[in-house]
Design brief:
The structure is a single chain. It contains five helices and four strands. The chain has 121 residues and is of the alpha+beta class.
């Protein structure tokens, strides 16, 4: 959980979850092969900063993703007193549409194959 990141954020990320509640620098996600990043893109500038060579940008629609994201932001607000996190949570239904899910293409394929074979993650 971070409230902004410079150039090359999540470069070569191989697992885990990242939430960015702020601006990103250029070349975000270059070489990202695993894990998921959620970006609060309230300015609408994220796509131009993302290196889409290995990732897909998806709207946040899956209930499990939404629940995970909200829980992470709630914990961040509780642990840090973040005014940004509190702002997002106080207007959750409107702010949710400003989030972008960054999903590595190979990771997505593996997850889909596992799901089709009923293999738990």
């Amino acid at each position: 959980m971070i409230e902004g990141i410079g150039d090359h954020g999540c470069e070569y990320m191989t697992g885990g979850r990242v939430v960015v509640l702020g601006e990103t620098g250029r070349n975000f996600g270059a070489g990202m092969s695993g894990g998921i990043a959620y970006i609060w893109d309230r300015s609408g500038n994220f796509e131009k900063n993302c290196n889409k060579g290995t990732v897909l940008l998806e709207p946040l629609e899956d209930r499990a993703d939404i629940k995970e994201l909200k829980s992470m932001i709630e914990k961040h607000a509780g642990y840090t007193g973040s005014t940004i996190a509190q702002e997002i949570l106080s207007d959750w239904s409107n702010q949710l549409s400003s989030f972008v899910k960054v999903m590595p293409t190979d990771y997505k394929r593996v997850l889909e194959e596992m799901a089709s074979k009923n293999i738990a993650i």
